[in-house]
Amino acid sequence: MTITAIPQTSTTPPEDAKKNKKVAKPGRRKKMIIILVAVLALGGGGYWFLRPKPTSAPQPGDVVKLDPIQINLASSHYLRVGIALQLVAGADKKLDGSKALDATIEEFSGLAMPDVNDSAKRATYKKQLEKQLHDRYEGEVMGVYFTEFVTQ
C-alpha cells in the first residue's frame, strides 16, 4: 500500500491572484475628489468668461426734425402732425424721412377725433409708431417726438 500525500492548501492566495486584484490605496479617493472639484471649478470659471454678454441699450444720438404733414381723420377732420426722430448714436443723420412720414400717415389716417385727442390713446399710437419706425429703419431710430399736433 502506498500513501500519497495530499498537498496542503494555503489560506493565502497565490502571488498571481494578488497581482490581478487591485488594492485600493488610501489617498486615491481623495485625489479623485480634488480633481473633480478642480474640473468643475474650471468649467464654471470658463462659462463665466465665455458666457454671452447681454446687449446694452442703444445710446441716443442726433434728433432729426421732419416737416409737419396733414392727415385726414374720420368725419372730415384732419390732423396736422410734426415729428422728430431720435436716432441711435452713430446713425446717419441724413436718413430719408419718407418712411417715417408714411408710417405716421398709416398710423393716424381715418381715426376719430376723440381717439386722437385722448392722451392715453395718443400715447398708444405713439408707441406703435415708434415700433414701426424701429422696424423700417432697422434699429437706427429709437424714439419719436411730436413737435406739432393740431386737430380740426
Largest sheet: 4 strands, antiparallel
Which structural class do you get from the secondary structure elements? alpha+beta
Question: What gap, in angstroms, lies between the N and C termini?
Answer: 139 Å
Write down the CATH topology of the domain at 60-151.
Tetrahydropterin Synthase, Chain A
- Overall spatial form: rod-shaped
What is the CATH architecture annotation of the domain at 60-151? 2-Layer Sandwich
**Rg on CA atoms, Å:** 40 Å
Beta-strand content bin: 15-25%
Tally the helices: 5
Q: Low-confidence parts lasting 5 or more residues at pLDDT below 50?
A: none
The CATH top-level class label of the domain at 60-151 = Alpha Beta
Order of helices and strands: HHEEEHHHE
Helix content: 40-55%
Total beta-strand segments: 4
Task: Summarize this structure as a short list of keywords or feature phrases.
single chain; 152 residues; alpha+beta; Tetrahydropterin Synthase, Chain A; 5 helices
Question: Which helices and strands occur, and which strands form pairs?
Answer:
Blueprint (H helix, E strand, L loop, with lengths): L14 H6 L7 H23 L9 E6 L3 E4 L5 E11 L9 H11 L4 H5 L1 H18 L4 E11 L1
Helix pairs in contact: 3-5
